[in-house]
From TrEMBL:
Keywords: Disulfide bond, Immunoglobulin domain, Repeat. Residues 9-104 form the Ig-like domain. Belongs to the immunoglobulin superfamily. DCC family. PANTHER family: NEOGENIN, PROTEIN SIDEKICK. GO terms for biological process: cell-cell adhesion. CDD domains: IgI_1_Neogenin_like. InterPro entries: Ig-like_dom, Ig-like_dom_sf, Ig-like_fold, Ig_sub, Ig_sub2. It comes from the Eukaryota. This is NEO1 protein. SUPFAM superfamilies: Immunoglobulin.
Length: 108
């Protein structure tokens, strides 16, 4: 008997855009993915997954967007500036990766 595989739509509704911020501001990197099974959303910064569980400044919002509270930026410490990607996973289907969005922090 043949197994008929139906195509399940799985796609981004919203992908993050480049953001220009200033130190101390809050930033939202938007992301939302659509699928019958709610996707698991994670974020990468400069190619590395962010651990948001133990992060008091960065949090995953219910829709999948990333909130960065109080952007940190100094001459020797630029933890927030960089390239962000939203990664959505549905275990039975696989993973999709958003476009890369650049967060730039302006000087004074």
């Amino acid at each position: 008997e043949s197994l008929v595989r139906t195509f399940t739509p799985f796609y981004f509704l919203v992908e993050p855009l480049d953001v220009l911020s200033v130190r101390g501001a809050s930033v939202i990197m938007n992301c939302s993915a659509q699928c019958e099974t709610p996707p698991r959303i994670e974020w990468k910064k400069d190619g590395t997954f962010l651990n948001l569980v133990s992060d008091d400044r960065r949090q995953l919002l219910p829709d999948g967007s990333l909130l960065i509270n109080s952007v940190v930026h100094s001459k020797h410490n630029k933890p927030d500036e960089g390239y962000y990607q939203c990664v959505a996973t549905v275990d039975s289907l696989g993973t999709i990766v958003s476009r890369t969005a650049k967060l730039t922090v302006a000087g004074k």
